[in-house]
Amino acid sequence: MLILLTGLTSVAISALSEALYHRTDDAFEWTFSLLLCLHVLITARLWQQTDFRLQFHSRG
What digits encode the pLDDT tens for the residues 13-59? Predict the structure, then answer.
């Protein structure tokens, strides 16, 4: 949800003020990257706690 909110806020700012968007663009990119990394880490932690297993099989 935070990732979506970050993206929508970035789009809104770019539509309202190009100058403000250029000043805040890097902050939005870093926030988005941080949230994506946190999502991966939290998902991995939850998989460990629930002993989730995923197996791939090939037909052959």
Answer: 999 999 998 999 899 999 999 999 999 999 999 999 999 888 899 98
Cα first-last separation, the chain: 41
Q: What is the pTM of this model?
A: 0.69
CA distance 15 to 17: 6
CA-angle at 45, arms to 57 and 4, nearest 5°: 95
Half-sphere exposure of 51 (CA within 13 A, CB side): 0
Helices (H), 1-60: 2-16, 18-50
